[in-house]
Amino acid sequence: MVVKVYGPFYASPKRVLVCLVEKEIEFETSPIDLFKGEHKDPEFLKLQPFGQVPVIQDGDYTLYESRAIIRYYAEKYKSQGTDLLGKTIEERGLVEQWLEVEASNYHPPLDNLVIQILFAPELGLPSDPKIIQESEEKLGKVLDVYEERLSKSKYLAGDFFSLADLSHLPFTYYLANSMEKEYMIKDRKHVSAWWDDISNRPSWKKVLQQFGAPF
Amino acid sequence: MVVKVYGAAYASPKRVLVCLVEKEVDFETIPIDLFKGEHKHPEFLKLQPFGTVPLIQDGDYTLYESRAIIRYYAEKYKSQGTALLGKTIEERGLVEQWLEVEAHNFHPPLNNLVLHILFASALGFPSDPKVIQESEEKLGKVLDIYEERLSKSKYLAGDFFSLADLSHLPFTQYMVTLLGKEYLIKDRKHVSAWWNDISNRPSWKKVLEFGTPF
Ligand SMILES: N[C@@H](CCC(=O)N[C@@H](CS)C(=O)NCC(=O)O)C(=O)O
Ligand SMILES: N[C@@H](CCC(=O)N[C@@H](CS)C(=O)NCC(=O)O)C(=O)O
């Protein structure tokens, strides 16, 4: 029985895909077209009542929220593929800390930039320069903290690649490639080296190759 | 060596306190006065570079982000005090799912209500009725999904109390006591029963002795 992942073309589901590749877990994908509103179909809402992707089905087990799904698989297949949670409970604590930083400090301003710069034009909505400016400032401050942290350890949670780094891949891909904001990474030496490292992992390249750049 | 928790008076640190009480872990608290800007002092920023509370120190181990800290202690003291992660990996997966729902769907609109209704004047920005209305609508929709979920299981992740429920305590306390929005809970039968249950746990009553979160 292979894992089924809904919505592989979008960014948040790519967190799950890259995790499954790192853990050497077989999966199949089921496309969901957000632009057609398929995530609000009653059948889909039975699986994911908030109407978002990703969702996974694994036998009769259903789970949503990308950062919950990656934790689940990292734990379930602890000794298969790349170890993504650190070796000790203390290392895992730091993985959790940086996963939370990604979700609560890094993601919200970056998500605003993505919506304002990439999606507003696509959806025919006006974009708001004030939100863009404020979000860029916030994100810059977060990246300054990352720069300092990454000057001391190779990855966010320590000297090992983990879910904390992996969780940054899909949305940072936008930042580094699609929004003319790559200087936010390039201007910070350690952040830049870190991004080169994690974005060149075979797992991420495979996800991009099979499912395209996130949009 | 007891765990040191910084900022016990505020809401997010209370997630950590209630978890430590449930896990029967000894702790002491170190006050941080946000209104005096103590969270932006260089000494504090060395420990927590983003300048927020909570932060814990446990021997020479330092950790921040409330939902990371509670996961750490729930795991470290798995077989002490209340089990908060479920019994199987699948149950833990559901605990993680509802912890994420709390963080991404429930918390942001509620936090907006807290900021605009309670703190706008203290923080010196105008409270925006449009934000208040939109946030209340969003929160209402989230609570409709909770109502449906809680009609099928006693707690969010299943028939066991977990971190997922615990994580809702501090900010939901604002909602029912200080925001005048208790009807958002009371009007939903299963949400209301769930709130009565979790907010009456001895652990939470004990934490409220540190004051209602503000
Ligand atoms: N916190 C959720 C967020 C998921 C999310 O925002 N997914 C987007 C696609 S990347 C989506 O489904 N958007 C449609 C919508 O929210 O209506 C997770 O990490 O799984
Ligand atoms: N995601 C953080 C949020 C912590 C947070 O927002 N703490 C508030 C007090 S409840 C704070 O320190 N605010 C001061 C500030 O952000 O300047 C966590 O859960 O630990």
From TrEMBL, chain A:
<dbReference type="InterPro" id="IPR040079">
    <property type="entry name" value="Glutathione_S-Trfase"/>
</dbReference>
<comment type="similarity">
    <text>Belongs to the GST superfamily. Phi family.</text>
</comment>
<dbReference type="InterPro" id="IPR004046">
    <property type="entry name" value="GST_C"/>
</dbReference>
<dbReference type="InterPro" id="IPR004045">
    <property type="entry name" value="Glutathione_S-Trfase_N"/>
</dbReference>
<dbReference type="GO" id="GO:0004364">
    <property type="term" value="F:glutathione transferase activity"/>
</dbReference>
<dbReference type="GO" id="GO:0005737">
    <property type="term" value="C:cytoplasm"/>
</dbReference>
<dbReference type="GO" id="GO:0005829">
    <property type="term" value="C:cytosol"/>
</dbReference>
<keyword id="KW-0808">Transferase</keyword>
<dbReference type="Pfam" id="PF00043">
    <property type="entry name" value="GST_C"/>
</dbReference>
<dbReference type="InterPro" id="IPR010987">
    <property type="entry name" value="Glutathione-S-Trfase_C-like"/>
</dbReference>
<dbReference type="GO" id="GO:0006749">
    <property type="term" value="P:glutathione metabolic process"/>
</dbReference>
<keyword id="KW-0216">Detoxification</keyword>
<keyword id="KW-0963">Cytoplasm</keyword>
<dbReference type="Pfam" id="PF02798">
    <property type="entry name" value="GST_N"/>
</dbReference>
<dbReference type="GO" id="GO:0009407">
    <property type="term" value="P:toxin catabolic process"/>
</dbReference>
<dbReference type="InterPro" id="IPR036249">
    <property type="entry name" value="Thioredoxin-like_sf"/>
</dbReference>
<dbReference type="InterPro" id="IPR036282">
    <property type="entry name" value="Glutathione-S-Trfase_C_sf"/>
</dbReference>
<dbReference type="InterPro" id="IPR034347">
    <property type="entry name" value="GST_Phi_C"/>
</dbReference>
<protein>
    <recommendedName>
        <fullName>glutathione transferase</fullName>
        <ecNumber>2.5.1.18</ecNumber>
    </recommendedName>
</protein>
<dbReference type="GO" id="GO:0043295">
    <property type="term" value="F:glutathione binding"/>
</dbReference>
TrEMBL record, chain B:
<dbReference type="Pfam" id="PF00043">
    <property type="entry name" value="GST_C"/>
</dbReference>
<dbReference type="InterPro" id="IPR004046">
    <property type="entry name" value="GST_C"/>
</dbReference>
<keyword id="KW-0963">Cytoplasm</keyword>
<dbReference type="GO" id="GO:0005737">
    <property type="term" value="C:cytoplasm"/>
</dbReference>
<dbReference type="InterPro" id="IPR040079">
    <property type="entry name" value="Glutathione_S-Trfase"/>
</dbReference>
<keyword id="KW-0216">Detoxification</keyword>
<dbReference type="InterPro" id="IPR034347">
    <property type="entry name" value="GST_Phi_C"/>
</dbReference>
<dbReference type="GO" id="GO:0004364">
    <property type="term" value="F:glutathione transferase activity"/>
</dbReference>
<dbReference type="GO" id="GO:0006749">
    <property type="term" value="P:glutathione metabolic process"/>
</dbReference>
<keyword id="KW-0808">Transferase</keyword>
<dbReference type="InterPro" id="IPR004045">
    <property type="entry name" value="Glutathione_S-Trfase_N"/>
</dbReference>
<dbReference type="InterPro" id="IPR036249">
    <property type="entry name" value="Thioredoxin-like_sf"/>
</dbReference>
<comment type="similarity">
    <text>Belongs to the GST superfamily. Phi family.</text>
</comment>
<feature type="domain" description="GST N-terminal">
    <location>
        <begin position="1"/>
        <end position="81"/>
    </location>
</feature>
<dbReference type="Pfam" id="PF02798">
    <property type="entry name" value="GST_N"/>
</dbReference>
<feature type="domain" description="GST C-terminal">
    <location>
        <begin position="88"/>
        <end position="214"/>
    </location>
</feature>
<dbReference type="InterPro" id="IPR036282">
    <property type="entry name" value="Glutathione-S-Trfase_C_sf"/>
</dbReference>
<dbReference type="GO" id="GO:0009407">
    <property type="term" value="P:toxin catabolic process"/>
</dbReference>
<protein>
    <recommendedName>
        <fullName>glutathione transferase</fullName>
        <ecNumber>2.5.1.18</ecNumber>
    </recommendedName>
</protein>
<dbReference type="GO" id="GO:0005829">
    <property type="term" value="C:cytosol"/>
</dbReference>
<dbReference type="InterPro" id="IPR010987">
    <property type="entry name" value="Glutathione-S-Trfase_C-like"/>
</dbReference>
<dbReference type="GO" id="GO:0043295">
    <property type="term" value="F:glutathione binding"/>
</dbReference>
